[in-house]
Amino acid sequence: MKQIISVKNLNFSYGETEILKKINLTINKGEIIGLIGENGAGKTTLLNILLGLLPSKNNVQVFGNRPGSLVARKKIGSMLQGDLVLSSVRVDEFLEEVAMQYSNSIPLEQILEQLDLKKHRHKFLKELSGGLMRRVTFAQAVLNNPDLIFLDEPTVGMDAQARHIFWELIEKLREQGKTMIITSHYLEEIQQVASRLIVLQKGKFIFQGTLKELQDRHKQTVITFTSEYEKCVFAELTGIINIEKNSSQVVIKTVDGDNTLKQLLSKYPDVSNIAVEHETLEKIFLQMTTDKEQQ
Ligand SMILES: Nc1ncnc2c1ncn2[C@@H]1O[C@H](COP(=O)(O)OP(=O)(O)OP(=O)(O)O)[C@@H](O)[C@H]1O
Ligand SMILES: [Mg+2]
């Protein structure tokens, strides 16, 4: 596995305020990192350091070089949070200009087609809607056929169709072996594509791993079924942490999904309409960040 990013014991402060605390991170080729965290957690700050837009010591390396080095810059594409400066340049003129800076850029027509931007190509940047602007910013980020792509809340403002096109393109880039760090507050979307999730909380990594590992650690399964029994009879099942009943629909939460389900079916074979769901990333995330706040 080829190491693309290496961060060792990184601290970063704005003046007296510590923003990132003892960050350790290794990212290998082909990984898709979903970087999640509340507003102000430090996600954009970390990306800016990796891009060399904020200073770091030699404990941060990108492609074996200092962030912001020419070697690294050539291989990186980025879509940051702020949109492009509004200007009287047309979409295709702007992208052509970006493409000219690189020797290995993807044909402009291909990008316009893929992002469904052809019909907007003659618009001035300053007349674009928020979602269209994000698409042009994304086009600019991938135009140089980068190996490493930073996407900071890429889908904000995109409509459902643009979002769909966007995630399909990310999937294609993943298949091509690109390495990506994507921040997003849309956890449902990020969990589909990320090979590793990182949860940043007030400048510290509080979790790194796969969605499965995260779910296992906060293992909760929700089992829904229909039954005429009183809800209290289900309290004796193993692993139960909560039971709710609304007319004949029972919803139980358990930390031991497999065994709870086995017992339920053997003791109460007449229950019906059974549905089993793992806790969503959204709920786990809320639970994690709230737990930490209380500590
Ligand atoms: N130029 C700056 N000067 C001083 N403080 C800053 C500066 N930029 C960011 N901060 C502070 O650093 C902290 C982390 O900000 P950052 O933008 O990295 O958060 P984030 O995780 O990207 O949040 P969001 O989800 O809102 O984008 C915040 O408290 C923010 O106010
Ligand atoms: Mg941010």
UniProtKB/TrEMBL annotation:
Top-rank taxon, per record: Bacteria
Claim: Chaperone is one of the keywords in the record: no
Keywords associated with the record: ATP-binding, Nucleotide-binding, Transport
Entry annotated with the keyword Transport: yes
Gene3D superfamilies listed in its UniProt record: P-loop containing nucleotide triphosphate hydrolases (3.40.50.300)
SUPFAM superfamilies: P-loop containing nucleoside triphosphate hydrolases
Start and end residues of each ABC transporter domain: 5-227
Pfam families per UniProt: ABC_tran (PF00005)
UniProt cross-references to PROSITE patterns, sorted A to Z: ABC_TRANSPORTER_2 (PS50893)
MF (Gene Ontology): ATP binding; ATP hydrolysis activity
InterPro entries recorded: AAA+_ATPase, ABC_transporter-like_ATP-bd, ABC_transporter_ATP-binding, P-loop_NTPase
Protein name as it appears in the record: ABC superfamily ATP binding cassette transporter, ABC protein
